[in-house]
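Worked example 3. Consider a protein that binds FE2/S2 (inorganic) cluster.
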Amino acid sequence: MWRTACVTCTIGCCKTLEEEKTMAMASMIPLCSSADLVQGGRAVPFDIVYAGQTCRAFAIRYQGQVHAYLNRCTHVAMEMDYQPDRFFDDTGRWLLCATHGATYQPDTGACSGGPCRGGLVKIDLSEQDGVVHWHTAYNLKPLEF
Ligand code: FES
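Given these inputs, the predicted complex is written out as structure tokens:
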């Protein structure tokens, strides 16, 4: 695969052209304070445009790391929270769809049980200096006001 130099490397060894394009087009959108995301606790919801449609998304903390997904079950395209912003099961180990009980891994969004068909759509997050940001991508954009 053809490679090109990136910002930190001048010999063209670390990023493909496609990766560079993706990084160049992505931007970071402030989402919430780090303190708003508690292990196994309530999610922080946000709205995004996914593949041209306005959708709900949510961010959670699991094993110290922050993660975000489209709030759309892969069984039937429905929002998953059983109460507003509640996605974790009672054990805090799985993300649960309230409709038919599909379960997903909190750190990857992969289907782990029930009727789900594949994994959740993952949204990149970063956390720095007490602030969590979500990252845009070619198919994930902020709402236009
Ligand atoms: S809609 Fe989520 S399990 Fe059926």
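Take a moment to read the result before moving on. Residues 1-13 have pLDDT under 50 and may be disordered. The chain has one domain: 29-142.
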